[in-house]
Amino acid sequence: MRSTVDFLLHDWLKVESLCTRDRFADHSRETFDAVLDTCERIARDKYAPFNRLVDTQEPHFDGEKVILPQATHDAWAAYAESGMLAAAQDAQIGGMQLPYVVEAAANAFFAKASVSIGAGMLTTGNANLLMAHGSPMQRQVFAMNEFAGRWSGTMCLSEPQAGSSLSDVATKALPDGAGFEADPLGPRYRLFGNKMWISAGEHELTENIIHLVLAKIPDADGRPVPGTRGISLFIVPKKLVDTEGRLTGERNDVALAGLNHKCGWRGTTNTLLNFGEGKFRPGGQAGAVGYLVGQPGQGLRAMFHMMNEARIGVGLAATMLGMAGYEASLDYAKQRPQGRPITGAGKDATQPQVRIIEHADVKRMLLAQKAYAEGALALELYCARLVDEQHTGHETAAAEARLLLEVLTPIAKSWPSEWCLEGNSLAIQVHGGYGYTRDFPVEQYWRDQRLNMIHEGTHGIQALDLLGRKVVMDGGAGLKLLAGRMQASITRAGQVDGLAEHATALAGALQRLGAATKAAWATGVPEEALANATPYLQAFGHVVLAWIWLDVATAAAEPGRRAAMRYFFAYELPKIDAWLGVVAAREDVCRTMDEAWF
Amino acid sequence: MRSTVDFLLHDWLKVESLCTRDRFADHSRETFDAVLDTCERIARDKYAPFNRLVDTQEPHFDGEKVILPQATHDAWAAYAESGMLAAAQDAQIGGMQLPYVVEAAANAFFAKASVSIGAGMLTTGNANLLMAHGSPMQRQVFAMNEFAGRWSGTMCLSEPQAGSSLSDVATKALPDGAGFEADPLGPRYRLFGNKMWISAGEHELTENIIHLVLAKIPDADGRPVPGTRGISLFIVPKKLVDTEGRLTGERNDVALAGLNHKCGWRGTTNTLLNFGEGKFRPGGQAGAVGYLVGQPGQGLRAMFHMMNEARIGVGLAATMLGMAGYEASLDYAKQRPQGRPITGAGKDATQPQVRIIEHADVKRMLLAQKAYAEGALALELYCARLVDEQHTGHETAAAEARLLLEVLTPIAKSWPSEWCLEGNSLAIQVHGGYGYTRDFPVEQYWRDQRLNMIHEGTHGIQALDLLGRKVVMDGGAGLKLLAGRMQASITRAGQVDGLAEHATALAGALQRLGAATKAAWATGVPEEALANATPYLQAFGHVVLAWIWLDVATAAAEPGRRAAMRYFFAYELPKIDAWLGVVAAREDVCRTMDEAWF
Predict the structure, then answer these.
(1) Which chain B residues are within 8 Å of A227, Cβ to Cβ?
(2) Would you give the end-to-end CA distance of chain B in angstroms?
């Protein structure tokens, strides 16, 4: 995989050119390589060997503490020590000032080695958010200790009665007595409510856990403000701290209500947390102490500030599970003798069996995995590079990057989740019966992968976001911009030997995608358009990946990448017509289905 | 599900008409219903409540015995007592003389309730095989005790070095001393070798286990005969028995070498067995005592005699997992409030949330599951009905049924394995995060399901069987016959209100399938045709299912079935063109892929 990462970063995305920008001026190919080397090494030594262990030694609560394997503690320590938690931060506060695209590529090694041991994505996201929206004191006390790995972070959005529907958040935040606004850590509230699906919500990996919690401050009549505009954001530490970042010795009123027992991804605790149930009573009172971040009612905006990165992170995790399955099944296929050629002398049963990689159908399953995983990796790094452009590019380029990201993020999150799951299933299939046993790693990759279509916005949510918002916003500006980029790639590819027919195929697909988008919205009735948002997402994703593969192939005549590109155009791209068919027809059999008919 | 079974058996397949045949003359709708009622009740009481238990209390070996939960013992006892083990057998030996289609439908309830507790399919298959190929004494001693549920059966085909490649079976069978041919239980051999993936290969559910084992008798030079023509079939009891079916007290030389720890389907032990390693030495000698069934070299033929039924059995198990996921997610979607309508007054956050079944995308996921599971059930019962026709129909009808089964069996086995897996994934998705936890049943259905594309002939093997043998044999007679049946359905449907456009769509699909079949074989080079056997299998399966749905819709104007049919034609059937595209083009990117390029 390293050679693929190097090719994509340097030959394709030319990330070294970022070093001409002020922010990255101290960097070079050498410093980038050093970061990748370090992460690759830690992932190999501290993560990969324990991936099955964390699957079988699931987190458990002993009545007082959540117990995780020692390996998880060691992995966290090594990751924190690497400095990657502060990869994006300024050098003057101890950060690496690393481009996001390099940070993402480096973190990919951990996801591949053991996605569920995890590599601090939540902690980094939490602290980065505080750097953007917190007060100087909040940054100093909370973010800095997270960057140092002394404390870890969570994101507390979902509630049992409100999974994807954040407007229904019912956790409430009440001002904590007179002078609540004057607390140096931020306006002080008491929080009451339950949060569900909180990853890393309880453990002993770090001295403290910093929860970022969405909650509603009641209005003047004491009622919660309906909808998302009533949502505010709070810092709720597990253990209370002072302005020097020292633990006061008091436990905050945040209690573990339960661990979720998952199908996979078992190295990370996933929790139901109760805020303010009175199990702990800081200052003698019930209610979890929380410090407001930014302005009241601006919580969702702050939380979603980093959403593109978070979704790229999930997409990259999905991609790396796909890559892990690909590599494992490729290795197996090269070793395992089974069967013989269909014709010729080797067909005879007196001849030795051949290795299964010699069978066309096994090659098909491997090539599909390569096309999914390496294509997805290219997409994720492309998006990560756009994040850098958005943050450090010139005005126009930054604006365009922002707009492209709006349109591409739903794909970056959903496409690897769906297709690298298919890839992981193929990795099992290559192994035959062995792949279905826990003696080989592929069944775990497949189970771990299944989470990715659910968390950080389900597939259905991504689809509504894409067709309901992203491709129609600003009069379709994002879609037009993306189509322009694709057109440029088509033009370039048209001049490269052997790519003309693929360039033409992509042009046709792009045209059909545009026509279906128009047809979906032709009546202007959202219900009619959005009934087929998911098939639209699937078709859109396949067109994007065909573009990515064409562009990658333009940058490299290397036969493996060419073959993966050819595979994608022959086997995958033609699937879009079935998906676009129902979109364009505004097919209504699903939305008009009566409940009684099921 | 019962109403769907009743509809398919009676309104669609008109199975009661079988009662006019001599073999089924004592049966009627009432006796069929009684069998279904009994099985539905036992499945509900003895299987369903323990499905999660058998997943968590995996079989383990205590050094002496394989331990299974008490619930599995109780389920086996109830199943054996029901008489279903001998459902197909003559009344005069205590059988039910039940049509296979009713037997299959009745067994479906167990598969849905707990596929891995299992319902004796292997025991029934084993004993049925002995009734067809064994000597009178073998039938009396072995088969009869299996029908009674006193003993259970296995099928021992695979070996560690020869999974799908049966010609590489290396287990050898040596004549057991002078007079070996005169043993009343059959010519007596000693077997030496290892068998892998043996389901129910070791347990204490029954007093004895009867292994049916493929092995090779060395030729005059002491060498095994290469290829499948050297394979013979042996009865190898775990414990030796006399001609009265009494245990002699001697343990045969069959030893458990290991339990496979699987991703799912954990209620059934899956074993590696060593034959003749000398752990037990009956008569003081090493070597597992085995009794030849039929003639030497005819073992594979005998073993595959029941293959169509075995593959329909796997297809039906896959179907029932799909049905279980559909019902669970439908139930959840009807209960769970989440989100609001896209437009209108209900959109406002002050309004209560609606149940998720009101969202178009959730309806899409449910309707897809319904189309997969109910369509697959119709296909399996159609094939089961063909088995009855093959066995009890008039000469021409029987011959046609046999030929149709040859072509349809690869689909009956593979299609539900693939698409009900997709259905099970959608069942998880409908549940959101809850579906990924072990607090809900759907993640287990999905894990259990993943086995079905592997066992009883992998997906790739089914594909080669279909495109390499079944559609080309007898000059394409099977495909022509099937096309004729489809054409008849198309004609009938064309005269039914609201079905004309679907009839036309199926006719077009059938035409394109035929053209692609021809194009695949146009050069006559097997490697070129078969490189895309799997996409061919997928396209063929979707055409078959479209036909099944059209025919079902012709029999019923009920709106739910009509909607599932419309779903299938709108969302699924159009997928065939992507698959057929590579088949017709004899796309070679996979088969020409160089190993070094991966």
Answers:
(1) 348-350
(2) 46
